[in-house]
From TrEMBL:
Pfam families: DUF674. It comes from Nicotiana attenuata (Coyote tobacco). The lineage of its organism: Eukaryota, Viridiplantae, Streptophyta, Embryophyta, Tracheophyta. This is DUF674 domain-containing protein.
Length: 243
């Protein structure tokens, strides 16, 4: 999924009685996108983060290694050096011109010219005349598997994650779900409604912007899906009219 028409989905849990959004359930692809916001912004915790970015950062910090792909490490997100090399497998890339795999090239004239480029049309600065068309072989750091044999993204599949309105992300479990319902003082599960919403390019850009500015990121993007008192009133009127 690397184009603007790609769609992921989030499952919102809504308290219809209190008319408020509680939290969302997300699969691997959505969580990969959220975590890679950190590499897109190239921000570090020590330099300060606004909005809900600090919660994303701490979610990665607190995530157990057992949920992280074996070919990845947290520093890729927590201390990003280059966004290009780490987001190639993120759904619907925000940078559509980023290649799925980076290649590196050296001077076509001499093996002793030590400059490297990712553009084969670049001119070697050592000799000043030959292009950098000699393809080089990338060697992964010790302990990291080759990208070709690794599963894409950052977190593991077969796990559902809870995403809070302020972008706190954690693996979902029955206990964590019950704890959240108690936190929101939900006494009757019958008032809960699940709402599946799209996460495509348009929503992704809105979410990215809101993550800088807001502590209620998901609500700001999906506000129209949360029932308002007016909409609930109209529903009740239709029900009474039909009966």
């Amino acid at each position: 999924m690397t184009n603007s028409d790609s769609k992921l989905s989030l499952k919102l849990l809504i308290d219809t009685k209190a008319r408020k959004f509680l939290f969302a359930e997300a699969e691997k692809d959505c969580v990969d996108f959220l975590f890679h916001i950190l590499t897109l912004t190239k921000l570090l915790k020590e330099k300060g983060m606004s909005g809900s970015l600090i919660n994303l950062y701490e979610s990665v910090e607190n995530l157990k290694d057992s949920y992280v792909q074996s070919n990845q490490c947290k520093d890729i997100l927590l201390k990003p050096k280059s966004s290009v090399g780490t987001i190639s497998s993120v759904p619907f890339l925000l940078l559509n011109d980023v290649p799925s795999k980076r290649n590196f090239y050296g001077c076509s004239y001499s093996l002793h010219h030590a400059k490297v480029s990712d553009d084969p049309s670049a001119v070697c600065p050592d000799c000043g005349r030959c292009t950098m068309t000699r393809r080089l072989t990338y060697v992964a750091p010790r302990g990291v598997k080759e990208a070709a044999t690794a599963t894409g993204g950052f977190v593991k599949e077969m796990v559902t994650y809870i995403v809070m309105d302020d972008l706190v992300v954690k693996p979902m479990s029955a206990i964590s779900s019950i704890a959240l319902l108690n936190k929101f003082n939900v006494k009757d599960v019958g008032v809960l409604e699940e709402k599946v919403v799209n996460l495509g390019m348009e929503e992704a850009l809105m979410l990215l912007k809101a993550s800088f500015e807001s502590k209620t990121v998901l609500k700001s993007v999906y506000m129209s899906t949360v029932p308002t008192s007016a909409s609930m009133s109209r529903v009740k009127q239709r029900i009474s009219y039909n009966t």
